[in-house]
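Researcher: Sequence recovery benchmark, item below. Answer with residues only.
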């Protein structure tokens, strides 16, 4: 995200960051794809590959954290599509918040089950 914010100045300085190489549109698409890939990898880890858990535990471990983080991911996707430049700093902090909410929700769900 820092690289997306600095894409113009990095390109002028000949810094070949991933964002410069991909361009603004594809860099924003990559951020969005990585954001939503959380749902795929979480479902695989806690839903599909839960061999020791019963079905209800696997379902709760899959649904609860994703349900809690979904509205935040949606808001981040909208912000990525609409913000640019220095305003992306708020999205950087918001992305960290998503990581914290996800981690806490998974941890608390495991503890409660």
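Model:
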């Amino acid at each position: 995200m820092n690289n997306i914010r600095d894409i113009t100045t990095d390109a002028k300085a000949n810094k070949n960051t991933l964002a410069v190489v991909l361009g603004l549109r594809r860099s924003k698409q990559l951020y969005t794809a990585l954001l939503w890939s959380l749902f795929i990898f979480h479902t695989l880890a806690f839903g599909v590959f839960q061999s020791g858990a019963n079905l209800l535990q696997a379902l709760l471990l899959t649904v609860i954290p994703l349900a809690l983080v979904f509205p935040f991911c949606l808001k981040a996707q909208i912000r990525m599509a609409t913000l640019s430049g220095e305003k992306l700093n708020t999205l950087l902090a918001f992305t960290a918040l998503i990581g914290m909410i996800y981690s806490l929700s998974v941890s608390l769900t495991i503890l409660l089950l």
